[in-house]
Amino acid sequence: MFLTIHATSAIVIGQAITNPIGAFLAGLASHYVLDAIPHGDEKKLDGLSLANMSWIATLDQTILLVNFLLLFHYKPHLLLTSAVIAAVSGAMLPDWLTAAHRLSEELDNKFTRVLHRLLDSLQNLHHYLHCRLIPYEIPFSLGLALQLVFLVGLWVII
Ligand SMILES: [Zn+2]
């Protein structure tokens, strides 16, 4: 799913779990749970060039930032607590690690080879949950609508 959905659901988690470590772990788990739900963009990044992937990641991060700015504007009771920050960090970590894994394929030096090997099993888990746990694909447009419904629901809860 898009980072906007992961991060917004993590805000809900950070509001419910006030312990930052628990919030981080719950945010991390939420990423994998949400990614397991068929959502139409599972294979969108497969086979893309690094430049195109960077472009999509930049767009995703920009939408995330706009969503956060709108949330803080329209939800004045929303506090940026350590639990919220921890939950959001945990929820976004798997995709950041995916980016590091992909970048480490492109840059060939001793550090990136070690990093790539360290991230391999996590990336395999991420890919398994994303694509193979529920091997059912929905069209990208339907996935987009589903993610929008999630976002609206999360906005109502926050
Ligand atoms: Zn993911």
Largest sheet: none
Shape: globular
Radius of gyration: 16 Å
Our estimate of the beta-strand percent is under 5%
- Secondary-structure-based class equals mainly alpha
pLDDT < 50 stretches: none
Task: Round the mean pLDDT to the nearest integer and report it.
Answer: 92
Element string (H = helix, E = strand): HHHHHH
Cofactors and ligands: zinc ion
Number of strands: 0
How many structural domains does the protein architecture include? 1
Helix content: over 70%
Tally of alpha and pi helices: 6
For the terminal residues, how far apart are their CA atoms? 19 Å
Protein described:
This protein is an all-alpha fold and 158 residues long. The chain has one domain (3-91, 135-157). Helices cover 77% and strands 0% of the residues. It has helices spanning 3-16, 20-36, 50-74, 82-106, 110-132, 140-157. Helix 1 (3-16) packs antiparallel against helix 2. It is globular and about 45 Å long. Zinc ion (ZN) binds next to helix 2, helix 4 and helix 5.
TL;DR of this structure?
Keywords: Membrane, Transmembrane, Transmembrane helix. The protein is mostly helical and 158 residues long. The protein contains six helices and no strands.
Task: Give the arrangement of secondary structure elements.
Elements: H1 3-16, H2 20-36, H3 50-74, H4 82-106, H5 110-132, H6 140-157
Helix pairs in contact: 1-2, 1-3, 1-4, 1-6, 2-4, 2-5, 4-5
Zinc ion is lined by residues 31, 35, 94-95, 126, 130.
Entry keywords:
158 residues, mainly alpha, binds zinc ion, membrane, transmembrane, transmembrane helix
